[in-house]
Design brief:
By secondary structure, this protein is of the alpha+beta class. 19% of the residues lie in helices and 43% in strands. α2 crosses α3. The chain is elongated.
Length: 195
């Protein structure tokens, strides 16, 4: 058997739920063990976009907000949804300005992530923003945001300790730190993102 071949067989698919942001489907499948089963998939209609803004003195900006799904307050990198069909960088520039009022003169692509690939097809794109210019934020009606500035090293420590648990934030902070410090002899390999 080739371990890279798809061991799943899809017999049928039916839509369970659909709104402007997600579609939920249930597939009738033949599992890798040859038995029938079901598989639920959440399809996202937008890309996830995350930005790690870093100032010239090594500080970053985090955004705090109450997350309805978790029923808890969460500190995160600036992030949001980007329409599929719009360049992820364009969405990142919009999200950073909207949530923090920050514009950046230099952008570095930090790669893509799959946020929870056992149940969703969501793809996230991460960016490092530098050469920052501060301004006024304009959050959406559904957002009540707090912006906090702290040393990037402290934010990375919060990600490592679990105080920051949002997946885009943890991955973004660690990738930004690595990119800026090129430590541990680990090479970052980044693919180009879709235009």
């Amino acid at each position: 058997m080739n371990p890279l071949e798809n061991p799943w067989q899809t017999n049928s698919t039916r839509e369970i739920y659909n709104n402007p942001w997600i579609r939920v489907r249930e597939d009738q499948v033949i599992r890798p063990d040859g038995r029938p089963g079901i598989y639920g998939v959440v399809e996202f209609k937008n890309w996830a976009i995350g930005i790690v803004p870093v100032s010239g003195d090594g500080d970053t900006y985090l955004v705090g907000q109450y997350r309805y799904t978790l029923k808890d307050y969460s500190w995160e990198i600036p992030e949001g949804g980007g329409a599929i069909g719009i360049a992820p960088l364009e969405s990142a520039q919009r999200e950073l300005l909207e949530e923090t009022g920050i514009q950046a003169g230099h952008w570095t692509y930090l790669g893509e992530v799959h946020t929870s690939n056992s149940v969703t097809d969501e793809i996230g794109f991460l960016f490092l923003a530098q050469q920052l210019r501060l301004g006024e934020s304009t959050p959406e009606e559904t957002e009540r945001l707090e912006v906090k500035r702290m040393p990037l090293a402290e934010a990375v420590q919060h990600a490592l300790s679990g105080e920051i648990s949002d997946s885009l934030s943890v991955i973004g902070l660690l990738r930004a730190w690595h990119f800026l410090h090129r430590d541990a002899g680990v090479e970052m390999v980044m693919r180009n993102y879709p235009e």
